[in-house]
Amino acid sequence: MTKEKKKTILTFSAVSLTILLAFSCRLIGQNEIFTPLSSLIRSFLYIGLYTAWGISVYTRIVQVKIRRYLSIEAVLMVAWQSLRTVKYLFSSDYNTSRYLWYMYYLPMLFIPMFSVFIALSIGKPEEHKLAGQAYLLYIPTAILLLMVLTNDFHQLVFVFKSSEWTDHNYSYGFCYWIIIGWAIFCALTAIILFFVKCRIPKTRKILWTPFIPLAAAITYCILYLLRIEWLIFFAADITSFLCLTFTAIFESCLRCGLIQSNTGYDALFPVSSLRAFITDTDYNICYSSSESADLPVGTMRATEREPVRLNRNTLLKGHPIRAGHVIWQEDVAELADTLEQLDENNKAIAASNEVERENYQINRRIATLHERNRLYDLINTQTTRSYELLKVILDDYENCREDEEAVRKILSKTAVIGAYIKRRGNLILLSENETALPIKELKLCLNESIQNLELLGIKCEYTIRTTSSLPIAGIIRIYDLFEKIVESGIDSLIGLWIHISERDGSTVARMEAFADANYTPPANDDSEFHTGEDGSFVFVLRLPKEGEQGQ
Question: Are 313 and 329 in contact (CB under 8 A)?
Fold first, then answer.
């Protein structure tokens, strides 16, 4: 016999003995000598029984709402029995007794109403909340209770036939039957809900246990209304009988599993395939499954902070419960395999990424070299004329090394052409990412070239009367024109004046070259050319305001 079965038998025996003693006290109370004492003992036995059941319910019920409503039911039963005890044993004033009698209807009305709430909560999650419409039941219940408590003013519930208003000489008023009807309505609603929900899941099988005490209560009420003599003699206490049957109905729902309870672990764990056990607060094992293994207390206590890894495939977890802890082992073999596979995949991906990274770096270096070569080719193409001239000058250098003046002049020419090649290449590089440049870039180009021209004794001046940016193609065209003027007469050029300004929405570059009779102006299709009155050579380059995109 399991521990749970022994506990059930002991509980049933204790309850049966308590009821038998209470019934014996009633029989003994038929003798007037022992009536007060036996009645008091009987009342205390019932009150103790309902109190013990209420405490038991509170510790066993899982669902919060059901636990709360059943606890209220137990409180109402205790209140009902207490009111009856005070009325019959301690009240000598008939007015006080009458109001104690009126108060009977507090539990008589609210016990059926809370039974509906309990039935609605069966099968719901632990934290389930009833729909708002269910709470409307409070309104008629409270109104009917108020009607009973104010009966002295209207006598619509009880109609008294004499000057002494007691429960020995009265008839029922119209509102009394409304009260009874409402109590029956709530009870029937609860019964129907119990009937609908009182099934083994996924079957049509009815759990009949809760309906046995219900049938007994209905039979008793019918016999009581018929005033059967033997019933009045042996069991005229309708308060005690109805409270007992209500308690039996709810307890049978707990026993058959209709209401979820926090019991049955001694039967569950031995047959469970779960590797789990329940301990007390000191981690002494109380319930253990057949698959669970003994573990050190320190290991179990460590689960309070975080899960403990027992081995590669097993994780130990714990959670506090009332008066102890539940500890279980979780198989994480699949998770471990998955993590290992992910680790291998990560390593493979990392290796693949490394190869891809190296390929990317190589391709990047190759692309950089291609781009560099492209830019070198572009610079070389656009400065070919200057390179050819520089080659000729350097050839002259080989032929006149002994003539210092000739060498100085050749090196000065080289500096002029080299400055142009450097600055022209810089503009080409900037044109890869920019479409327009500040005017200071043109100034930098002209300044460096003019400084080198002064080494040849060529005087140069420039004025720029614009502060806006210029399209980079326009800057290149101005600088190319300047260089062509210089290179076409580098030996005969005396001076050069440059003026850049804005006119009518366009940028105008005017260059005047002063040279001896040997100067040959360069052919240039982009600029206007004419000879000045003072014998200078005038070049005018006009750039639209938007600039040109080509070079």
Answer: no
Per-residue pLDDT of the chain (551 residues; tens, 9 = 90+): 566 677 778 888 888 888 888 777 777 766 555 567 777 888 888 888 889 989 888 888 877 888 888 899 999 999 988 888 888 888 778 788 888 888 989 998 999 999 899 888 887 776 777 888 888 999 999 999 999 999 888 889 888 877 777 767 778 888 988 998 898 898 888 888 877 776 655 555 566 777 788 788 778 777 776 767 666 666 667 778 888 888 888 888 777 777 777 666 566 566 666 677 778 888 887 777 766 667 777 888 888 888 887 777 777 888 887 678 888 777 777 877 888 888 888 888 888 888 888 888 877 777 766 666 666 666 677 677 777 777 777 777 767 766 777 788 888 888 888 888 888 888 888 888 888 888 888 888 999 889 888 888 889 999 988 777 888 888 888 888 888 888 888 888 889 999 988 887 788 889 999 988 788 888 766 788 888 877 888 899 888 765 444 43
Q: Using CA atoms of 412, 414, 416, 417 in order, give the dihedral in degrees to the nearest 10.
A: 170
Q: Between 211-225 and 238-255, two packed helices, what is the crossing angle to 10 degrees? A: 170
**pTM score:** 0.54
Cα-based torsion angle of the residue sequence 519, 523, 525, 526 in order, rounded to the nearest 10 degrees: -40
Rounded CA separation 504/539 (Å): 19
Q: Which residue is associated with the tokens 């260059």?
A: 511
Backbone phi and psi for residue 515, each to the nearest 5 degrees, phi listed first: -150, 170
Report the distance separating Cα 522 and Cα 485, nearest Å: 6
71 contacts 247 by C-beta, under 8 angstroms: no
Rounded Cα distance between 248 and 360, Å, is: 81
Radius of gyration, CA atoms only, the chain: 55
